[in-house]
Design goal:
This protein is of the alpha+beta class and 84 residues long. It is built from two helices and five strands. The chain is globular and about 40 Å long. 20% of the residues lie in helices and 49% in strands. It has helices spanning 30-41, 77-81; strands at 3-15, 18-21, 25-27, 46-55, 61-71.
């Protein structure tokens, strides 16, 4: 089992007065994810920088960590990452 770490930015948009996820964007590093999330939150309601560790062969998630949140994020965002 080979674990691979990737960094993503999850922006959020407003749709019918509710926050919903927009298209995730990849980042090269933890620092890059934080900077990109902060920049996106300046023009969207909010964004979160994520660190995702998954099995490179099966794609099975090992862990998802929120590195930073900027602007408005749905209240249940952290729970949704855990599959709950």
């Amino acid at each position: 089992m080979a674990l691979k770490t990737t960094f993503l930015v999850q922006p959020f948009e407003l749709h019918r007065k509710r926050l919903r996820p927009a298209r995730q964007e990849p980042a090269q590093s933890e620092f890059g994810a934080l900077k990109k999330a902060e920049a996106l939150a300046a023009r969207l309601p909010g964004a979160a920088a994520l660190k995702v560790v998954a099995d490179d062969e099966t794609g099975e998630l090992d862990s998802v960590t929120i590195l930073g949140q900027f602007g408005d994020i749905p209240d249940d965002f952290a729970e949704s990452l855990l599959g709950g």
